[in-house]
């Protein structure tokens, strides 16, 4: 064995990636629970939100906006389309599909936004507004560093 138990513990306690993934899973579970009455998971909510923000967005544009790889995104979009929350329509130019919300999708998103606001306010209250805003800014910086490190 070329590593020691202490080395493993040190990595577990100091690795940014492990910490972000653990925190991300817990925060995702919290938002999923808070959005439960809308019938949406936080991942679906963010995709619907992004589609609503940019009308008739392409899958490629949506993937860039959400930082979700196209394969994963396409699987999610198929589910949303099957549930009749979104429409995928071929655009006039090339082999590009435009995405938009259906009436059912708009209704679910409206409910989801109300529940998201409650979850968000709860997080702000628990962390304190200053720490909450500092955390968001720090996460933006971490994403920038990760983007710069891409090879």
Automatic annotation (TrEMBL):
<dbReference type="InterPro" id="IPR000835">
    <property type="entry name" value="HTH_MarR-typ"/>
</dbReference>
<dbReference type="GO" id="GO:0003700">
    <property type="term" value="F:DNA-binding transcription factor activity"/>
</dbReference>
<protein>
    <submittedName>
        <fullName>MarR family transcriptional regulator</fullName>
    </submittedName>
</protein>
<feature type="domain" description="HTH marR-type">
    <location>
        <begin position="38"/>
        <end position="87"/>
    </location>
</feature>
<dbReference type="Pfam" id="PF12802">
    <property type="entry name" value="MarR_2"/>
</dbReference>
<dbReference type="InterPro" id="IPR036388">
    <property type="entry name" value="WH-like_DNA-bd_sf"/>
</dbReference>
<dbReference type="InterPro" id="IPR036390">
    <property type="entry name" value="WH_DNA-bd_sf"/>
</dbReference>
């Amino acid at each position: 064995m070329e590593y020691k138990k202490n080395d493993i513990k040190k990595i577990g306690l100091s690795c940014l990636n492990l910490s972000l993934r653990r925190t991300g899973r817990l925060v995702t579970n919290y938002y999923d629970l808070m959005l439960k009455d809308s019938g949406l998971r936080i991942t679906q909510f963010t995709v619907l939100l992004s589609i609503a923000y940019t009308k008739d967005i392409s899958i490629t544009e949506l993937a860039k906006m959400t930082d979700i790889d196209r394969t994963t995104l396409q699987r999610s979009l198929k589910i949303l389309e099957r549930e009749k929350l979104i429409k995928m329509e071929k655009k006039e130019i090339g082999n590009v599909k435009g995405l938009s919300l259906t009436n059912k999708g708009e209704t679910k998103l409206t409910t989801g936004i109300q529940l998201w606001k409650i979850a968000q306010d709860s997080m702000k209250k628990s962390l304190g507004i200053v720490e909450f805003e500092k955390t968001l800014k720090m996460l933006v910086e971490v994403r920038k560093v990760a983007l710069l490190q891409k090879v």
